[in-house]
Specification:
two-stranded antiparallel sheet
Amino acid sequence: MLFLGTGLGTILLLAMPAFAQTDTSRTRTEDNQKTLDLLKTEQQKNDQLENEARKTDAQKNASRMKDAENMQQGNKAAAKEARRINKDAENAARQSRRAMSAEKKAQKARKAADKQARKAAKATDKADDNQ
């Protein structure tokens, strides 16, 4: 309130407090609206970050799955190679056993041939002595 003193009388001005009240309520409404706008903006940012995080998680999961599939393919290839090497080793061992068996048979045949040759030589010597 404002009092103005003059010689004729005192005048009381009441318009100022009413104007200040209207201005304050308008300011509060604007502040509330700004706060709501900031909250909405912040919520949108949070939603966007959550979506990006979900996408990032999905990408990480997809990458992990791809890595696992690649590892599985690598393991399959390594297992296939190991089976091939094992098969080759078994074939080599089988061939070695067969070769050894064939060599034993050949030695036995050579011994028998040598024995037969000695018998033949004895028989020839005996026949020569008899003549």
